[in-house]
Amino acid sequence: xxxxxxxxxxxxxxxxxxxxxxxxxxxxxxxxxxxxxxxxxxxxxxxxxxxxxxxxxxxxxxxxxxxxxxxxxxxxxxxxxxxxxxxxxxxxxxxxxxxxxxxxxxxxxxxxxxxxxxxxxxxxxxxxxxxxxxxxxxxxxxxxxxxxxxxxxxxxxx
Length: 158
Fold this sequence. Notes:
Distance between the termini: 25 Å
Structural class: alpha+beta
Shape: globular
Strand order of the largest sheet: 1-2-4-3
Largest sheet: 4 strands, mixed
């Protein structure tokens, strides 16, 4: 699901080898949560959930759980917030170093990055794993983390 035709076109191109086994839908959070029950084997989200507040995230996780077939999986790759201020500082320094390594204008990038604070609402990884469990997912785990980016998810019981 995405609200951008450009992103949906790119996803369609990348998923064409899966034929009718991959479904793309136009929509946007928080208005267009999955509304079907027991339909999907896999729901994947990337860099979207962090725009939702805590209650909206929990509602989304519940809706995704309901949309999965028994044994289906939800995986999310997203921005997370650290519970420890020193790790937030370290993460900010990592981003600045990454921008410099790309040869980009640091001031312009960091101004845009910091402006995202007005519409981003990342939650801690710990909170999101708890919410997945509260939504009745099992095998809830973090698969990968690099500073304030993480991939995590869970499985609907069979």
